[in-house]
Amino acid sequence: MTQLETLANVQGRLLLQDIYRELRYERRLGTAQVLGTMWRICTKEQELIRTTRHDVVILHPLGWMQGTALWMQEVVNRFYYSAINAWVYAGAAVLLLAVGLNRVGVIHQPAFVVGGIVLEAALLLVLFVVMYYTPPEEPTRKEPAGENESTIELLREIGEIGRDYAAMAVQLEAIAASLAEVVEKQETMNAAVRDSVQSAVNAVAPNPTLMNSMEKTSASLDQFADSINKLGSRLQALEAQEVQRHVRAELERLLSREILKPTDNPETH
Question: Following DSSP, what letter does each residue of 108-158 receive, concatenated?
C-alpha cells in the first residue's frame, strides 16, 4: 500500500493519468462513467483500491473546489480538449452555414441564425472553461505539437465569426429600415383604400341627410299637388257659378223683354 499526501503533486497527477487509462482503455467504461469516477477520486476518494487496481491511500483529499479544478486540468482538459475543440469547430460551421443561408436569402428565419449563435456561444464558453483549467507544464510532459496552431486557428475562426456577426448586424439594421418603410407605405395605402371604400359606400348608399331632404321634397310636392287639385276644384266651382250667373242674367233680360213688349204697343190689344 502506497500513501500520497495529495493528488495535486506530480506523483498524484501521474497517478490520475494512469487511472484514467485503466478505466478508459482497459476496463472500457463509458465516458460519463469515467468522468464521474475520476471526479469522485479527485474530490473525496481516499482508498483508490475500491475503484482501481492501484493500492494507494490519499491522506488529504482536495475537496469539492480544488478537486474539481484538478479534475478539469488532468482529465477534462488533457483527454477531452480535442473533442471539445472539434465541437466548437462544428458549432462554428453550423453558424457560418446559417449566416450564409440567411445572407443569400435561402432561409428567412432569424431564429435559425440566433440558434446557431447561441450554440456557438455555449460551445465557446465550454472551451473557455476547459482552456482556463489548462494543466501546468511539467518537465516530463510535452504539450502537443499542434496545440498552438489549433489555438491560433481557433482564434482566426473566432475573428471571422465576429466579422460575420458585424455584417449580419448591418444587414439586420437595413432590413429593419426597409420593414419600417414598407409599414409606412402600407399605412398610407390602407388610408387611401379606406377613403375609396367610403366614397364607394357613399355613392352606392345615399347620404341619410339627402334621403331626408328628398322625403321632405316629396311631401312638399304632394302637398303642392293637393293644393293644385283643390284650386282646380274651386276654379271649376267658380266657373260654374259664373256661367249660372250669366245664364240667369240672360234669362232675366229675355223675360223682361217679353214682358215689356205688349205694353209698348197698345194697338195690338
Answer: --HHHHHHHHHHHHHHHHHHHHHHHTPPPP-TT----TTHHHHHHHHHHHH
